[in-house]
Amino acid sequence: MVKLSAPLDVVDLYGVGPRHLGLDQEICITTDYEIAQQWARALYRQFPDLVGIRWRGRQMSSENVVLTDRADLSTLVLLSDHKISEAAVWPRIATAARRCRIKIV
User: Whole-model pTM above 0.85?
Assistant: First the structure.
């Protein structure tokens, strides 16, 4: 988990404000990831000063942010980190995989 030490300018797919698109959950419910990648590439090209995308997750309506290569990672402050081998981590990965219909082998 991280927190920001300075604001990051992201495209907001669902919120309100100067950098929002006001989209609903429909953009996030597709399992056709090629379409999602096309949207991401278009937003990346359209907003060259922005460093990421913010949206509501389709499984739990959680807030999600993805940062691009334009983001200044020095603005991120690490709050917690877990080794993938920790016992508490795998149940969370397995739950997320099941929700996304991803098979872990």
Answer: no
